[in-house]
Please model this.
Amino acid sequence: MKILLAEDDRTIAEGLQYSLEAEGYEVVLCGSVREGREALAQEPVSLCLLDLGLPDGSGFELCRAAKAHGGVPVIFLTACDDETSVVMGLDMGADDYIAKPFRLRELLSRVRSVLRRSGRLSDGKSQIVLGNVRVDTLAAKVTKDGRDVFLTALEYRLLLAMLASPGKVLSRSQLLAGIWDVAEDFVNDNTLTVYIKRLREKLEDNPQAPFLIRTVRGLGYTIPADLFGEPEE
Ligand code: CA
Model:
């Protein structure tokens, strides 16, 4: 599994390269847009990790090139709280982004989930563990502290839509699109708010201070990637 890493900060680049290689990935390190373009043209890669500010241009250019090369998945490394860049990146088809400084564990988990989502990695997992909440996607069953949680079809679909993209911020319109076909009545923006609230009441320890389903102001909702645990056995 080959990852193209475009990052001109040597300390970050070398640290990341080391950690990715330790996880078994092969890393093609590029320090500029030009090098990135050359690498994309030369060899197939499974994923691109792109810094935004490169000496001869921006990571957006490489994202465009990656998408043109068979839709290679892209994760942007952004400066923290740079919402404009995040929105622009996601609009360009980026699969995820992570704000610097990031925790390595979170980055690796994002890499895995983007690869999984893009079908470049399949582990056939049907059990999803989020702290004391467990979702069995084969049985369509949700438990909290070992007790069954009863979700309506719509609530369950909403949850699945978020579980499918660990750590990815889903806009309200993306979530609405994801539940459209099970929605019996017309679902509008306000009803989405109501369904998120119900999901939180059923799943969160403290629905007033949600831990699982986080609101990202002005952008949408997300379930943080680092909450996803490994099921035992
Ligand atoms: Ca940079």
The longest helix spans residues 189-203. The first strand starts at residue 2 and ends at 6. Residues 159 and 209 are 18 Å apart (CA to CA). The radius of gyration is 19 Å.
